[in-house]
Amino acid sequence: MSEYLDLKNSNTEIVTEDPRTWKLFKGLTETEYAELDSSVKILDFVRNEIVFRPGDSADRMYIVISGRMKITQLMPDGRDQILYIYNPGDFVGGLNILSGDHYLYLGETLEASKIGQIGKNTFSKFALTRVDSLIEILAKSFDRIRWAESLVSRLSASNAEIKVAGLLISLIDSYGIKKNNQIYLKLSINREEMGSYAGLTRETMTRKLNEFRNKGYIDFIGNRTIIIQNLSALHRIIYLV
Fold first, then answer.
1. Could you report the per-residue pLDDT of 125-171, keeping only the tens digit for each?
2. What is the pTM of this model?
């Protein structure tokens, strides 16, 4: 991993209800876009509303148009472990359709969201027959493998400082906006959810964030915005240099 992370295109990517703006289906003809548009259901969700549950049939997939969605798994000790956070342009369920599996995890919105629901037949017709769409599915799969590896590293770390530093760096992908050599994370997750993501209690997460603030690594604006002021220091914590 390089010392400095680039902010991902997902922060500036323009995604609307028009399927022409969805990378998964780029390159269709106007006739095909019209057919796709008539087949997609656009659903509005409020914050903390369930999109799909474990055991739901994978006869449809979802693409985030606006807002954010978290994917969680119920752990044996009763905790909800956040696995992924999906942003506008991200999709979920394509691999489930391919494998014929049911949904294994819980999909829930983190904020008011607009989500496109795409049926199995529509997905098969317009995605599985196109090289560009298959490349996009592979690219997203690779991103999620990287994300999962980062999650495993955070959860397996015994040092709470490493867990928090790793989480803040990971959240740049979903929330980071660069301003004046600082990175602003305008979060839709609270401290408890951050703790879940890092494998820490809410109290430990809050204490470590305050320690980072006192050291000048980060600062806060209210309860939902974290400013990363020293990204190099967070990397040094992870790599113990």
1. 999 888 888 888 888 887 877 777 777 766 666 689 989 998 999 89
2. 0.75
Characterize 25-56 residue by residue with b for buried, 16 or more Cβ atoms within 10 angstroms of its Cβ, and e for exposed.
beebeeeebeebeebbeeeebeeeeebbeeeb
Amino acid at 2: S
3-state secondary structure of 179: strand
Closest CA to 51 of 109, 130, 138, 123: 109
> E strand or H helix at 150, and its extent?
helix 131-156
Would you call 231 helix, strand, or coil by DSSP? Answer: helix
C-alpha torsion sign, points 241, 215, 110, 136:
negative
**Structure token pair of residue 168:** 């803040």
In percent, the amount of the chain with pLDDT more than 70 equals 91
Q: Is 182 exposed, middle or buried (0-12, 13-18, 19+ CB in 10 A)?
A: middle
